[in-house]
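Notes from the 1:1 (GR / supervisor)

We went over the backlog. Supervisor wanted to see one worked example end to end before approving the batch request, so GR pasted a single chain during the call. The sequence is below; no edits were made to it. Supervisor asked that the structure be written out right there so they could see what the output format looks like.
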Amino acid sequence: MRRLAFALCLVAFAAAPPAVRAQHAYGQGPFDPAVPTPRSVLGYEVGQRFTPHHMLSRYIARLAATSRRVHVDTVAVTFEGRESFWVALSSEANIQRLAQIKADAARVSDPRGAGAAELQAAVNRLPAVVWLGYTVHGGEASGTEASIALLYQLAAGQDAETQMILDSLVVLVDPVQNPDGHERHVQDVTRARGAFGVSPVPGGLQHQGNWPGPRTSHYYFDLNRDWFLLSHPETRGRVAGFHEWWPVVAVDLHEMGSNSTYYFAPPMAPVNKNVPENTRRWWDVFAAGIGAGFDRHGWSFFRREGYDEFYPGYGISWPLLAGAVGMTFEQASSGAGAVRRADGTVLTLHDAAWHHYTAAWATLTTTAQRARERVRDYLAFRQSAITDHLAGPLRAVVIERDEQGRADSLAVRLLQNSIEVQRLRGSADVAAATEFGESAARPSRFPAGAYVVDLAQPQGRLAKAILEPDAELDSSFIREELESRRTGQGNRFYDITAWTLPLAYRVRAWASRTAPAGGERVRLEELTTGAPRPAAPAPGRYGYAFRPGSEAALRLLALLLADSVRVWYAPRSFAQGGARFPYGAFVVRVAMNGSTVHDRVRRRQAESGADVVPLASAMADEGTDLGSNSVFPLRAPRVALVGGAPIAGNPYGFAWFAFEQRLSYAVTPIPAQGIAGLNLAEFDVIVVPSVGAGPFDGALGDPGRQRLAQWVRDGGTLVTLDAATSWVTQERVGLVRLRARRDTIRADSSAGAALPASVPGAIVRALGDTLSPLLAGVRTEIPVLVNADRIFAPPRDLRAGEAVVRYAPQARLRLSGYLWPEVPARMAESVYLWMERVGRGKVIAFAGDPNFRDHFRGLLPLFANAVLIGPSM
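Structure output shown during the call:
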């Protein structure tokens, strides 16, 4: 029956008109008739429709069942339960020796301890491994269709060029890097598709999709920024796959605006200084091959503009810094499958997929023709990553462990990136080290247990890129940007300019010119599955206490509150039975929680991993007794998270992820445009993610704005993040005395126009008011991200406890990244975190987004305290 059905599909294809038959494949035959064509399984030609995930999975399974050139791995399962596949394609002989290929790849990726003959033998045996990643942004879906055509060509093609590629390479096809976002796109387009296909009119409903669009993951994260952060299972699986295969070429295939053409590397400036010159040479080699392929069709393309290579978390930056030739490809989008462009032409899905196919094929042929050279250069990259850092000005980064476990979490992140980490067995001295946030090197002693990342390792360039205190920007680039700014032109900062993980995790760290001696290598299992967990607490006669600030403690607090366990907040330090607790500790009283409290505390303690201490009495050995009137109860807040248009998906998703994946606390999504009609009394806290003041005001309307303001006055706690704080500080909203600074920067600009002052993602120092419960578990100095031009000035009648966190004075403000020259003086000592009482309620306003990309893990306590403690203050 299967053979008959397949035969009927082939007959139908043979009878199709030439225009349709040409879409059968973008490559060349003849083809193995035993391998099913895309049409025979999908029911349409590649490029005629967008392929849903279940049909893509079906086709991959059919290829694996019929072609001996195909090996399939599931590398991850998404939050929505979809499998993320890697399809390995190579010659039948290579597929039969995959274990040897992976062993050789591992040997070449870490040449330490191997002799020249052993390395040369591995280089000679190793096919060049090429990774092709498609559709990391769900709506950029021509990539997935191009991958289907490529899968068929490599699995079934019998021509000489295909065989050369299969003999010389292992091709890893990641057909859809973002299955959840891609499925949103496919379903949106399918539901909007009419009987006559797709209307090419730009701006038509078919091209719009539903909020927040398909670009992002389940939690609305941009997975193209998640590579070294590893927040999502798709990214963790992908990076683990790189550790297994160690590709020497990596291509990330995207889409851009419909009126553009096609982009491929080399990128524009700035390029991260950790990318060596030889890698840049390879960009030109591949560009020549791809350009020749496009020239054969007369297609337009461009290079060196629009896309930089500075931020190390892009989809090809991680492979690039690990030794692969990483390249971004950008194809003009066909929208819902056909869109009319400004020049009057109609770009179709078929065209877009064909361009991606052609670029990928040129990449494969170029790599196959120079496979030995590419593998040798990859080995040289990994060797030089060791030797170049032996005498470099930055040899090691030392990270002090902390009681809250942030350094441990950072060490786990580094190990998951295959970056080697050591732990000092005893204290160690170095002659010169510079603490992060300071400028002078001095002799330093590091305590036992501190983590050391010696950059003289095969992953040394990646380690340096994500750990170095300040990523270097060319002075010539800065000069050009300042001139462009002066003359009213746009800047070339594509993403943030500061990301260093020690500051983001808020740990104490040093940049050292030498590697401290006396370290032992740390294994990932030691810090995850093998790490000792705090013991279950013995029954507490009076109650239980746990310290604030750690992610484990925050999860425990959230879990207890959600489990209807009554928890108290102790604003002053105390000690009992040898255990010391800083200000802001949490206390569970037995008498107020019933007989099941012991089991509930033990269960939630095991779930969270927090350290819980039993309390025998309300009497403190030192400090404030626990029955003090200063110790106040926390009520379990009912939390709403505002979403829907006009709020962007990213900031909504960042907060959503923080609640569910970091705090394990359930929230209710509510629509911005429907607030006027909601019963807001259902909620104690409403969180508004970043949104422009004007659009949000328009979405609320007068009724929604008035209803929200009255809800605050009646006792609600409103938490605003980033741009949403611009909305709440408007005088017409009538809730807070904090105001956005309105004056503009005027200097030697063209015609005296105001200079743009939006900070391109820098890390600055902020100083906290440690008397505020919102800073429980947080020390005074706090690194925060500034990624906008918003500055909030406190009122003259500033009251105690309102300016919870302020930016540091000008001389100590900048920690990492780029600030326009006039910005430090304007920003210094302005407000980052504001708390103001309004009637019976309060507003807690952040000038930035503490949940940004799940990157700044050191800021999670500020957000959690605002939501979980703030309503009870």
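Supervisor's comment: Residues 1-24 have pLDDT under 50 and may be disordered.
Batch request approved.
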